[in-house]
Amino acid sequence: MSAAIEKFGLLCDALWAKTSENKVPWRTEGNLIAFDSGPNVCLIKRSSNSNGDDIYTVSLLNGSGVVLESFDDETLVDIAPSSNFENYFQLLDALFERGRRQATGADVALDDLLHRLESETLDIPF
Amino acid sequence: MFNWPFTADATLDVQGVGFWLGIVGFAVTIIGFLLTWRKIANAKSVAESLKDQVLGIRVSLDRYDVSQEASKADAHLKYAQTHLKERSWSGLAASYTDFLRSLHIIRQLQVVEIEQFSENIQSTILYCEKLITRAELNVNNIMNDNDASKINSSTRSNEMLITSIKVALSRSIVQ
Predict the structure, then answer these.
(1) What number of C-beta contacts closer than 8 Å exist between A and B?
(2) Mean pLDDT to the nearest integer, B21-37
(3) pLDDT digits over A82-95, tens only?
(4) Could you say which of A10, A43, A77, B153 would form a disulfide bridge with A34 (CB–CB 3.0 to 4.6 Å)?
(5) Radius of gyration of chain A (CA)
(6) Which residues of A touch B151 (CB under 8 A)?
(7) Which of A31, A75, A86, A89 to mutate to test the interface with B (most CBs of B within 10 A)?
(8) Beta carbons of B131 and A51 less than 8 Å apart
(9) B44 vs B49: CA distance, rounded Å
């Protein structure tokens, strides 16, 4: 196994850990989520592979939009994530969903609604 | 008494009476025509209303068939998920073949309420065909975890499509 693949795995693990703590400023557009890291951009794109199944591609771009590095979940089939996921497809699938929810504000809206429901009596019309 | 119209003195009177009789006859003809036309129109509207009712019944039956088939499709996907857990390509091929049959039936029934999903149904049919071919080629192999995860994710998307179809149908029934 190459050192690069190990690094790709570590990057995915770190992204999942930080996203779980709500510490990655994800933004979203269509089938991708992205965040700025200094002068570079990290993005995760969801598309279909030749079988028609989902494939997640992680890319690192510099400030000029040039791709510095790119890999997908199928590159990582021979290594296992450090978290509870069976494989990196599952991790990236969950990461994409969570990142998208954070970017759209769905999580914040849900937390806000839960907080209101707990703290005050809402006038629900039914 | 009856030969006065044939006398020379009555010529003008006869012409006058004939004129008015002609007018009355014309009016009666028009009224008769209108009555006949109304009867025909009524008969036609009855036939059309019968035709509409028959069409309505057919649409309701098609909706019912789609609803039934969507429930079957859902069950086939549940079996597919069980086979994915068992990592069984042969089981997956069998349950996806059944799911594909249900999708074909749903597509062919052409119910208006699910027209919005026709592109999704078509792409899902293509996905199923590819997956079945792949599963049949791998029938003697054990499925790896990565393939199982990916197919499971696609299966969840297919479940969402079926759920959307069911919701669209139930909305139309409520309306």
Answers:
(1) 34
(2) 93
(3) 988 999 999 999 99
(4) A43
(5) 17
(6) 53
(7) A89
(8) yes
(9) 8
Chain position carrying tokens 């019309």: A125
Q: Measure the CA–CA gap between A30 and A36, rounded to whole angstroms.
A: 17
> Contact, A92 vs A53, CB < 8 A?
no
Main-chain phi, psi angles of A105, to 5 degrees: 85, 10
SS (H, E, C) chain A: CCHHHHHHHHHHHHHHHHHHCCCCCCEEECCEEEEEECCEEEEEEEEECCCCCEEEEEEEECCCCCEEEEEEHHHHCCCCCCCCCCCHHHHHHHHHHHHHHHHHCHHHHHHHHHHHHHHCCCCCCC
In the three-class reduction of DSSP (H, G, I as helix; E, B as strand; rest coil), residue B140 is classed as coil
- Angle, vertex CA B4, rays to CA B3 and CA B10, nearest 5: 140
- Tens digits of residue pLDDT in A67-81: 999 999 999 999 999
The angle subtended at Cα A117 by Cα A116 and Cα A118, nearest 5°, is 90
**Element (DSSP H or E) covering residue B21:** helix B11-85
Q: What is the rounded distance in angstroms from the CA atom of residue A41 to the CA atom of residue A77?
A: 25
B86 sits in which H/E element:
none
